[in-house]
Sequence to fold (424 residues):
Amino acid sequence: MSSRKLRRKTVSLGEAYGLTFHPDRPTRESAAKSIYGLLGKDGEIFASALRNICNDWLNVCDTRKYPSPMEASLIANDIDRRTIDNLMWTVEKNTGLYQQYLRLRAKVMKLPKLGSHDLFAPIPNAPKMKFNYETVRTQIMKAYSRFDEDYAFAVRDMFARNHIDSTPRIGKGNGAFCASWLEGKTAYILINLSEALIDVYLLAHELGHATHAYYYTRSQTILNCGVSGFSARDFPKIVAETGSIFGELLLTDLLLSQTASNEERKAILCGVLDSASVMFRATNLAIFEQSLYDTIKHGGYLDYRTICKLWVAARNKVSGDAIEYFDEDEARWTDVPQFYMPNFRFYNYPYTYAQLFVYALYRQYLEEGKGFVPKFKKALSAGCSISPVEIGQIVGLDVTDVHFWERGLKQYEDFVIELEKIAV
Ligand SMILES: [Zn+2]
Fold:
């Protein structure tokens, strides 16, 4: 808590969210406390919405004779329950690794302990790694080409055709998105590039989507490409991010090979681990969501206080004592939009699956070298024509093996160890 006097200011919710990433710690603290303090005041309204959605979903599951509230999500992702149970169990068993990273991040930020408002804060005194459009283009092209010249084709083509709308301007939406290749037509990417490292990663990610789509739209019919409104089904979320997360790893590989400065390495590794830690944050959400249904089934009533207690229990299970929370943080579940999607439950664990699956793929690449490339292209080319389990088999990975998920976690651990060596 800072003793510095803060100026009162009224801002929109969107601006307040922006301030939660502010370099100044008291500003982040004030923004986070304001947002969740205010949302918490309307807590019973949010509780009423969530309670009704969860109760309704249990009725839907009964009617459809689903064995669990997760079943619809398992069907959408074309995956079996045991594989997801193994995944969750492995991540829950390894939350110590996440907590180890959180303590290292605190050390890098020169804090005794991370606060909930420090999780995505910029690293203080990090070297200014500025990128303009040309250097972004060169670095991403290089990262993809180092993997395989032919694999970089879609990336090269996207730049050559000028199909990347990268300039921020008035009237343009924010965020980043790739409208994929279809029927031989090229993709388009919308992004707002600043000069920051995080945006280079964002573009490497979106170009991974373009590359993935380049392969499957040339190998599959429109029915197997996951195109909404056309395909037999949407692309399973657990494999839809394969090309994109792999692209981020290729960029990491390049950037770490280029920099000798420990300060730059710290910034790169913290960025990578912040992003990869989605697997733990998503597990937190999945544990919480499951606890909502369990409470109803045991005759409990989901009022605001009860839901907050469930939220705190799930969050503490994952982050342990590595994060210091404010009282207002118990309301953080109120603004997670996925919890209010009535017909799409368990939106969360696919993020964990995707991250660990691609990390396992990347380790396979490190072990096999160039021999991995054709198998990976074949896996990307499969689109939705085969199940995620079969996609894993193409590259020699068995996601149904109880120990499989440890492979991906090992890669996360390697990044943590790298950071530990220089986190002073
Ligand atoms: Zn993506």
